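Lecture 7, part 2: worked example. A protein chain together with guanosine-5'-diphosphate.
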Amino acid sequence: MKSIHIDLEQPGLVEETTNFKAGFAAVIGRPNVGKSTLMNELLGQKLSITSHKPQTTRHRIHGIYTADDHQIVYVDTPGMHLGGQKSINRYMNRAAKSAFAGVDVILFVIEAGRWSKEDQSVADQLKHAEAPVVLIVNKVDKFKQKTDLLPFLQTLNGKVEFSTLIPVSAHKKSGLDLIQKEILKVLPNQTPIFPEDYITDRSTKFLIAEIVREKLMRMLGDEVPYGATVEIEQFEQEEGTGRWAINALILVEREGQKRIVIGDKGEKIKQMGIDARKDMIALLENRVHLELWVKVKENWSDDERALASLGYTESHN
Ligand code: GDP
Ligand code: MG
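Predicted complex, written out as structure tokens:
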């Protein structure tokens, strides 16, 4: 974090400072308020997977935005939710909580017109946070008249401590510039945290597995997804052609779930493959050969050891 500032009063003294700003912005909130959608929009690139299902984001992921004079490292988190007894839920809550330690600003995302117990639980935990809290009211597009939103906004004052409130719509890309401005106000002066060409702290292989998981979450009804996970068995680029050969294994908990994932005559898994491949081509900017497989792995989501073997451990988080 070095650059030079010469103190004119005492020409002999050289102090370290810089005009560049850099720091971390944690994106937190209960599941399904649109945290991942918002981060992707702020980055202008799809990194974090999204769906209408509450537990889509399982891992913490950094999305890095670098401009000429600043770098914002967004930390997308699994939503915090109440009463999770299974190992996977405990893991996700830990990942969400540790995300706001040591960050420069907290973006607390809620949904326009809705304040639930889970929102209140997040708000309560934020009372101990050291960084300033920007309250982001997302999905304002659900209100046709802006004035209809005002009564809701007024109720927020007593419920949560925040430095600024910004109503936005991640879908309509409205209000995003205000978020960036607010972050820049509090980012410390320091040189970039990540190299300028980095877009995430996660490996490409991780992003590939997440793409498959997103299709699974989106494609299937409520029957399956929470028990399912994805392992990448092959991820190789062919010499000469540059084409990627990818083998992904979808692990489900029960035989019945396997049948659902595969679908009638294989139509479900086929469609997932088509959708996933499209996203992979966009990410890798090359041709992709994708194979999807489904396997039953019993009780993985409630077994700490099985979680560790799949990368759900604190050190990976
Ligand atoms: P997360 O769990 O907080 O990360 O939420 P996601 O980003 O996965 O989004 C949850 C759902 O809300 C998805 O179906 C999104 O398409 C939807 N969503 C996100 N942002 C907006 C928005 O600005 N307006 C509306 N109407 N829906 C949104
Ligand atoms: Mg998410």
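Residues 1-8, 11-15 have pLDDT under 50 and may be disordered. Residues 219 and 271 are 9 Å apart (CA to CA). Keep this in mind for problem set question 3.
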